[in-house]
Structures are given as structure tokens and as C-alpha cells.
Fold this protein.
Amino acid sequence: MNLGLNNNSPGLSENQKLVMDLLERESGPLSAYMILDELRGSGFRAPLQVYRALEKLISIGKVHRVESLSAFIACSHMSCEKLGVTAFVICDKCENVQEVSDKSISLFVADLAVKTKIKATKSNIELHGLCDGCQNT
């Protein structure tokens, strides 16, 4: 989902804008090395360039890391920055990834943090299975 975030994002470096553009164009998550391969023609030469851009984009809430896939995806919900909890539904067959932004998930995680007496700084939830399309094939 292209939210056009990079074009209206003052303060992003050229590398960050290039990575953001690429992730917004893609329909699924990309590994850092896939990003590097795609952006070699734009001057990217080393993985460190990609990781630095991703680090910044993650810190400002424009990109998420899908931990179980070691990949990155553009944020598809403007409310992620406010909610603080990101959930993904991942099809193990077709590798389709859907981002879920739901206040009840954030409330549950916040309540869990209080109960366990931890000051949470980050939370990703990933649900793996088969999507409807893959279940029916």
C-alpha cells in the first residue's frame, strides 16, 4: 500500500527515500539484501547503507521488520506510531503479509506489560498460517 510517505517526509536522506520508495512499491516484505540488489543502480554498494536507511525508517514508524522472515515492509497504517504495537498475519505458503492495526491488540499488550512489570519499548506480533486462497488450493 503506497501512502506516499517518502515524498512528504522532510529530513529523510536520499538513501532513506530510495528504500522507502522501493518498500512502498513492493507487495510483500523484502530482505536487506533484496533491497540492496534492487538499489544497486541507484548507488547502493554495501549492506550497511541499506541497514542505516532501514534503522532510521523503523525509528520513525515508516517501516516494520517482520522478524520471522528477516525482512522489512512499509507501514500500511498511519496509527502505528501512536499504537506502538504491530501485528502481522503471514501466509506460510504464498508469503503474503498483512499488517494489522487494532487498538484491542495494543491494549492487551499494554495490560500484559503492566501485569509482568516490564516497560515495553517494542512489540511485534506475528501470526503464521494459511490464507484463504492457499487453504482452498
